[in-house]
Amino acid sequence: MDVQTVSSALSEENPLADEQCVKLEKTAIKIQSWWRGNVVRRTLLHAALGAWAIQCWWRSVQTKMLEQRRSLALKLYTCQEWAVVKMQAHVRMWQTRRRFLQARQAARIIQSHWRWHASQTRGVIRGHYEVKASRLEIDIEILMT
C-alpha cells in the first residue's frame, strides 16, 4: 500500500485524520529523501573509489611506460656513443698504422740508399809498406764490403 491510498482512505473518514495524514506523508517523504540521498551518496562514493583505484593503476602504468621509454632511450644513446667511440678508435688506429707504414717505408728507402752509398764509397784498405834504401815498396789490397 502506498501513501496516497492511505491518505485518500483516511481523508474520507475524518477531517482531523487528514492533517495527520499530511504530516505523516511529509515525514515519509523526508525519510524517503534521506534514504535515497544515502543510497546516492554511497553509490557515488563507490564510483569515486573505483575511479580513484583506476586512476592510481593508470598512473603506475604510465610511470612504468615512461621508465621503459627512458631506459630504451638511454640504451640507444649508449649504443650510439659506443659506436662512435669504436669508429674513432678504428680511424685513429688506421691513421697511426698508415703513418707507421710510411715511416717504415721511408726508413727502408733511406737504409737501402745508405747501404748503396756506403758500399760505393767505403772500402777496406789493407796493406803494408816497407822503406828500403832509396825506394818505397807498397802492397795495397782494397776490399769492398
From TrEMBL:
Pfam families from the UniProt entry: IQ
Single annotated GO MF: calmodulin binding
UniProt protein name: IQ motif containing F6
Source organism per UniProt: Myodes glareolus
